[in-house]
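Course exercise 7: structure representation. Students receive a sequence record and must write out the corresponding structure in token form. The form below is the worked example handed out in class, using 1-phosphofructokinase (303 residues). Read each field label carefully; the graders check that inputs and outputs are placed in the correct fields and that the protein name is recorded exactly as given.

STUDENT ID: A-19
EXERCISE PROTEIN: 1-phosphofructokinase
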Amino acid sequence: MVFAPSPLLTVTVEDLGGEPDLHLHAGGQGVWQARMIASLGVPVALCAALGGEVGQVLRHLLGENGIEHVQAPVTARNGAYVHDRRSEERQEIADVPGDPLSRHELDAVYETALLQGIRSTVSILSGPSDRRTVPAEVYRRLAADLRSNGCVVVADLAGERLNAVLEGGLDLVKVSHEELLDDGRADSEDAEALVRGMRSLRDEGAETVVLSRADDPALILAEGEVWEAHMPRLHPVDPRGAGDSMTGAIAAELAVGTPLKDAIKVGAAAGALNVTRHGLGSSSGPGVRELAELVELRSWGGP
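STUDENT ANSWER:
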């Protein structure tokens, strides 16, 4: 199960032989994670609130990705953005945030996610695109309730939502080095400083910590050890969404019983392959698994 409280409608304009080419997709962190899970052939349910005209469009688009969407009916409108990618630089034309969910709508979304999560082996808690949509406290309660009912909980969050979900307890948290710096858990990009921040996340409630570092090897803190994920370098086309693909792939592998180290290799491959494509979370499952064979987890040499 992927908890994606408020997905987005993404509209992009690209160049096709000198003519504008329009693309509409369901988007947002949870959608991109669920798309990666589905591409690996693992069944996935996306728990989301869909409302307004944008929500009506999202209902149709989500069904095209092989994702089961379990929706809570709401009146709050989903957000959307329009980007022009006809030049080398992505240009934002419009960015419309989603509406905050009312108390009754939050209750409905929570109940939907809780029941679906209990039925699932692994649940990912992803964030809304706008911080006003869902209070951080919801994440603490959902993480605690899912874990107490035997569900493996994975989170890809930052800021106050990360703080909240750590209180509830996590099996695995994925963060970027930028998020660790922004949250004040590390004071530099130096590996030793980042590992100290990862250990603070472990001490606060995460059993395993996966840290992406842009072009540098990801760091993994698990089972009392720190590893680095080394793999072939690939030329990036669009770096956005690599972390979401990584999280989705790790969760997918854990759901089918893959050992942790092997699941992380698949996650690293998914994140790396994602940057070679324009579509977020759109890497092919066979390609990801083939690239995962080239990923090496090496013991980190620091203190």
